[in-house]
Structures are given as C-alpha cells and as structure tokens.
Hints:
The protein is an alpha/beta fold. The protein has one domain (4-134): Rossmann fold (3-Layer(aba) Sandwich), CATH 3.40.50.1010. It has helices spanning 9-16, 23-35, 44-58, 60-72, 83-95, 103-114, 126-129; strands at 4-7, 39-43, 76-79, 119-121, 133-134. A five-stranded parallel sheet has the order 3-2-1-4-5. Strand 4 (119-121), helix 7 and strand 5 form a beta-alpha-beta unit. Helix 1 crosses helix 2.
Amino acid sequence: MARRIFVDTSAWLAVMDEDDSHHSEAVELYKHLLKSQINFITTILIVSETQILLRRRKGHEKTMAFMKNVNESPRIEITYPDARLEREAKRILRQYEDQDFSLTDAISFALMRQNGLTEAFAYDRHFATAGYTILAE
C-alpha cells in the first residue's frame, strides 16, 4: 500500500493562495510528495473549509481549480465522517478541552487515528498538539 498522509485546510490554502505566507514552501513540498507517490487523505469538512476560504481570498476561478483537483485526482481520498468518527471526535474534544480544537480538527485527528496515519501536511499546530507529525514545518 502506498504511503498516505492527511492534508489539512492550512496546507491546501498555502498551495493554492500565492499570497499565503507559506505558499512557496507548500508548493515545493506538495510537488515533492507527488513525486514520492504519496497518496493524500482529507475530509469533506476540510474541502468545505478550503472552498469557502479560497473563494473569499482568491475568487471563483481559483476555487474551481481546487475543487476540480481534489475531486478528480486518483491520489486524493475524501472521507465523509460517519457517526463513529463523530463520537471519537467528541471524545478528543473532551480529552483536549484545554485546547481550542474545532470539530473539524477533532474529526481529522479521529480519521488519522482510525487509519493509522501519523503525518499531516498542515500549517496548523493543533496537529502537533494532538501528537501528529507535521510535514510542513
């Protein structure tokens, strides 16, 4: 099985938005991961967050390019949270009640745990706080 990593909203935005402070680094890392035959996993919640933020920042054309890429790439798996993931996410939120994790963050962590993933392409320190390795540092 090919190596898989989780991709967060912060990474998608950095790749797509040339005004993002991490843009150059993110594009280089994304190209490297693509060459390394890495497969990507994300959630529909991440795709939704990215779509609305990208739409606000960069407009319709850039947003549609992102949507086309994530929906048509055979190397990007979009997961739709089910009741089991939601329950685990709520448990994570209780476990880390001193943190400001969003439900989207917690569902991401639950999905990573469920799939045995340890690495995230992210610029969100919450992943490190939850015990995951951030590739984009």
